[in-house]
Amino acid sequence: MRELNEIKKDLNCCDQEILDLLKQRLGYAAEIMEYKKEQGLPIFLPEEEKIRHEDLLAAIGDHAYCDELLSIFKQIHEESKCVQTKSLFGHNIALIGFMGTGKSTVSKYLRNMLAMKEVDVDAMIVEDQKMPIRDIFEKYGEEYFRDCESNAILNLRNCRQTIISCGGGAVMREENVKNLKKGSRIILLTARPETILARVKDDGGRPILNGNMNVEFIKELMAKRKDFYEKAADIIVETDHKSVQQICEELVVSLM
Ligand code: S3P
Question: Which CATH homologous superfamily contains domain 92-255?
């Protein structure tokens, strides 16, 4: 058997080599992003990611520590994305827009695409109040819900590299817009009332639309909110007839 000191020396050498390679690897990740930015290439290629994952599985094979190796590489890939995202922008992304414009879907896709943290303002309220939004409206009324919403947005003032998905009415209060603007670029997602109705009609979780599930009501409320949305927005992205990948690519490019 080898001496313990000798084994430890080899282990330390490994760490040094891994560290040197990781430094190199993160540098390459940043370089790739610079190249993509300069050439106007797509930022995120899910198909390529899938192939890279398959290649990795093949390279690991049935090694005794395959689960551990996979988990290490997953982390390396996440951190590479973080480096790339940081080279794109240093602010949060706040998603605003009418109910059913796809804020939650876009937020989840962006989280995966950019390895950013993700918070949902409605989910924060639900967790804090320990009841669904529907019940908060019913029990305490809309004003109370709006106060919770303002409070949640205020509490997000120190977060960084985060996607903040806001409820559809959040920007009706100026203080919320002011607080969001401090650390975030605000993206307005839009969709036609018909598209919105198709997306939300089977979901009973939105009290504002209870008993009002029709295009006329949506159109009217949208018109009332339009100026607030547009005034708050740094960037506007239309979502009709686009895939979530298209929407996110467009959004990221307009943020760069
Ligand atoms: C609201 C939108 C909802 C939620 C609440 C009120 C609104 O969020 O905050 O029901 O006033 O538009 P989503 O836009 O995520 O559905």
Answer: P-loop containing nucleotide triphosphate hydrolases (3.40.50.300)
